[in-house]
Amino acid sequence: MKITIGAMTAFVFLLCQWGPSIADSAHPMQIRSLKGLQGVYILVESIKPEIEKLGLTQSKIKTDVELRLRKAGIKVLSKQDSFEAPGMPYLYIIANVLPHPSLGTVAYTVKVELCQEVILSRNNQDKGDASTWWTPGMLGLAGKNQFVRIIRDEVADQVDKFINDYLSLNPK
Length: 172
What we know:
Blueprint: H1 5-22, H2 28-32, E1 41-44, H3 49-52, H4 58-71, H5 79-84, E2 90-100, E3 105-119, E4 127-134, E5 138-143, H6 147-169
Parallel strand pairs: 1-2
Antiparallel strand pairs: 2-3, 3-4, 3-5
Helix pairs in contact: 4-6
């Protein structure tokens, strides 16, 4: 089966319009997992060098997120501090970009997750990392000249959801 660029673009457009309305807010269990959290380390998934050359870098995303959290009064932990904090929490930022050079567009996904150590209830011993809070994510299509701003804005929107949920259980 052959899929044309126009059909793929229409499909991505429909997903972008429909997707965010599916689950704009976190499940109550996800929100409860934020109670007592003393801070978070920020981990940004690696970005391909060719995308970084276009202006979207791990360091810019990390700086954006750290600034938002600090302004909201949420402690940003160093990597070492996160290992020593209860639950070893980290906010995982995912921004994947797939350019389509001949069209001058990029397809992208953005997702934010809080990962922390959990213990299996069936034996109260086995530990592992798990996502305990997450956004539904965003899938989109943007022009080559606009995608950096669009992705940074989307990361900010998703981090704001984390901040709101965090502050609802950990008021200042």
